[in-house]
Amino acid sequence: MSGMGQTTVGVLVGAAIGAAVLYGVLGDRPSGGDPTNKEELSAELKVGDVPTHWPAETPIDNGAGPVTSDMLEKASAARDQWLHYSGDYRGFRHSPLEDLNPENAKKLQVEWSFPTGTTGQFEVSPVVHDGVMFMTTSYNRLMALDAKDGTLLWRYDHVQPKNLRLCCGPVNRGVAIAGDKVLMGTLDARLLAFNRKTGEILWDTEVIAYTDGYNLTSAPLIVGDLAITGIAGGEYGTRGFIDAYDVNSGERVWRHYTVPAEGEPGVESWAGDSYKRGGAPAWTTGAYDPETDTLFWTTGNPAPDWDGTVREGDNLYSDSLLALDPKTGTRKWYFQYTPHDVWDYDGNTHIFLVDVDVDGKPVKAVAQANRNGYFYLVDRTSGKFIHANAYVEQVNWATIDENGRPVVDPSKMPAEEPTERVCPSNMGGMNGAWTGAFNPDLGLVYVSSVESCQHYQVGISGFVKGMPYLGGMPIAIDVEAGKAYGHMTAIEAATGEVKWRYLDRNPMMAGALSTAGGVVFTGNQEGYALALDAKSGELLWNFRMGGVVRSQPIAYEIDGESYVAIGSGGWSTLRLLSGGPTNIPDGGHLFVFKVPK
Amino acid sequence: MKKTILVAFTALFLHACDSGGPSSPVAGHMADPEAVKRGRLVFAGTCGAYCHKLAPGQGGVPYLFDCGWKHGGSDQQIYATIRDGVSDTQMVGFGGVLPGGDDDIWKIVAYLRTNSTCEQ
Fold it and tell me: What are B4-28's pLDDT values in tens digits?
């Protein structure tokens, strides 16, 4: 801790009490152990002011300078940086490091590791710049670490209110970096900017009232001077939106609602006034095409999730791909993957801006392995559908017609007394909670996925602002029967053809990293970091990190040596729905691996 | 003596709480399969999924089928908890918002009681 100052929550305290009581206090917390409720913790323990912020007393400066727009645009070529959540603007998550190859992958060893101190899914994709790694944890801890040896340089623990509205765990997936600022969204729906060198807070903007059912879980995307972020809250009958904030001031520049208002195009796709509670959250990070100056963002489920009778129509622009003008937020076009979704098939899984040949013609496309079980290719200059193919083994809810519209099997609709086995589950397929990767040399997209089916029960909902608005529930029949399993799948982007699958006995729910050396990194729910051959899917290496792997691996180079970072740490409650081991304790830990000399 | 007074006071207090609310139609609803079904559908659509589970030991939200009532176990107390919510928790009140009016709340109570695993 040397070299760091600290600020604290101002609560007066008294005599110390034992660690056993600490365990009891945390164990009683409904969140399952939110360690960041510092005010409450301090008052209950009476042990002393609990620090929440440890800025660096000496600014960190290793000479790389501020992050420029040019750096952000050329991030895919940078060996010593990982600047975007998705690796680059196109979402490739493809490292240029050639020495991360099949031979060297087998030699990887732990170089350093670091704890998060929090429970809940550890889903981060760290960012690396100037020799510093910026790592977020569940409950919005943000730490700056020396990327070479893990030395803690500064730390900030966001103090959360007690009444967060979290559908799916206390998640944060990472930061964005611009200039000398690091930006993080929070579970209480704020966007914060920090001085990357010191950890000092530069601005703190309320995005929206979290008590209405909103939170920020994804990493922002920087385009020019704008930090662009979507919000989560589709299970709360919110009205989804994508925001752009001035990186320098923190002031909002534009907001793009994902559900139209009265009189706007698309509102006719909602029966009655159901658009007022329409959901369609934008809870994952988008992509950007500098060539056409177009921002691509995706949206999630309409609300309520499983009762479509109260919102007849296509429910625009839920479960959609949106093309936006980054300067204004104006929509250029949209493509809806799952009109009138009643299965919770959020459309916001990872997108890839790929240039491929289709039927002998070059096409600039957006590729996506959607949560509904189909891999889509859409023309990114027009929004025109190209093709869709099933990428999971079990898909029966619909087929896709020549225009990209699902032809739904009526027997697979949610029912009051569900008996139909419907695939995939509401967890996917793939899911926006983890990333995929794309190897442009091989033309292959890599995605981890859930192989599972469910019963979908429709119910009756009352809407209360700030409360879940669901309209039913999934019944995890495969999970209960021990039948849920997982794959890492390699899909040819141009054709949608599955080239290989790596089978795991549990659903695979971690992100992916591709390398120029021909390796794919991911992890599984038994706590292993995995390295697979990018061409064949052969398992090259594994390492038991311990905790369920839910993070997004990254790679970077320092002093000519290559590093791979993978986080370990799950959230056992979610595994009741997704499948996977429930006996592995929660708790996050980052591991950084290196090929020894 | 003090203990006796405390018990008597507590009983009076609880009685006052119970008698302060509306009379309970739960027994009648429990005898009506359609009412219990309605309660089940409202529970599935409003209370289940990400909050109250159908099996014990799942997540941090109270399991409602074991009679382990945290805010009172009489029909009226359960009704009031659903109608008014619980302060400082995510449980807000559902009074006046369910499609079938507040009678849907009584039907939820009837569904919970019908499917409880404890002796009533």
Answer: 444 333 333 333 334 445 689 999 9
Report d(CA A503, CA A480) in Å as an integer: 20
* Beta strands per DSSP E along A105-216: 109-115, 127-129, 132-136, 141-146, 152-157, 176-178, 181-185, 190-195, 201-206
For residue A30, list chain B residues with Cβ-Cβ distance below 8 A. Answer: 60-61, 89
Q: Say what angle helices B103-114 and B33-42 make with each other, to 10 degrees.
A: 100
Q: Are residues A65 and A79 in the same domain?
A: yes
% chain A with pLDDT above 90: 87
The verdict on B11 touching A (C-beta cutoff 8 Å) is: no
Sign of CA dihedral A34, A175, A373, A339: positive
Query: What is the SS3 assignment for A274?
Result: helix
Is A10 found in the same domain as A71? Answer: no
User: Which residues face A157 on adjacent strands?
Assistant: A141
Of the given ranges (A20-34, A158-172, A363-377, B79-93), which has the lowest mean pLDDT? A20-34
Chain A positions touching B61 (Cβ under 8 A) are 30
Q: What does the pLDDT read at residue A258?
A: 98
Is position A293 annotated as part of the catalytic site?
Answer: no
Whether the CB-CB separation of A105 and A516 falls below 8 Å is answered with no
pLDDT of A152 higher than 90: yes
Average pLDDT over residues A425-432: 97
Looking at the structure of chain A, the number of domains it has is 2
Sign of CA dihedral A438, A442, A448, A449: positive
Query: Residue A43: pLDDT band by 50, 70, 90 thresholds?
Result: low
Closest C-alpha among A266, A205, A263 to residue A240: A266
Q: Which residue of A has its CA nearest to B87?
A: A163
Chain centroid, CA A117 distance in Å: 20
Determine the structural domain holding residue A44 and report its residue range. Answer: 1-54
CA-nearest residue to B39 within chain A is: A460
**Cα–Cα distance between A162 and A166 in angstroms, integer?**
11
Nearest Cα neighbor of A262 from A250, A274, A246 is: A274
Domains and CATH numbers, chain B: 25-114 (1.10.760.10)
Which one of B38, B50, B111 would you mutate to disrupt binding with A, by most A Cβ within 10 Å of its Cβ? Answer: B50
Point out the domain boundary residue: A19, A38, A54. Answer: A54
Q: Is the pLDDT assigned to residue A415 strictly greater than 80?
A: yes
For chain A, give the mean pLDDT. 93
Q: What sign does the dihedral B45-B49-B51-B52 (CA atoms) show?
A: positive
| A91 lies in the same domain as A32 | no
Kindly list the distances between the CA atom of residue B120 and the CA atoms of A51, A215, B67, B68, in Å, as whole numbers in the listed order. 48, 40, 8, 11
Cβ neighbours of A471 in B, within 8 Å: 45
Cβ of A295: how many Cβ atoms within 10 Å?
26
Q: Looking up tokens 């998705």, which residue turns up?
A: A86
Domain stops at, among A54, A79, A96: A54
The DSSP annotation for A450-470 comes to: EE--BEEEE------TTS---
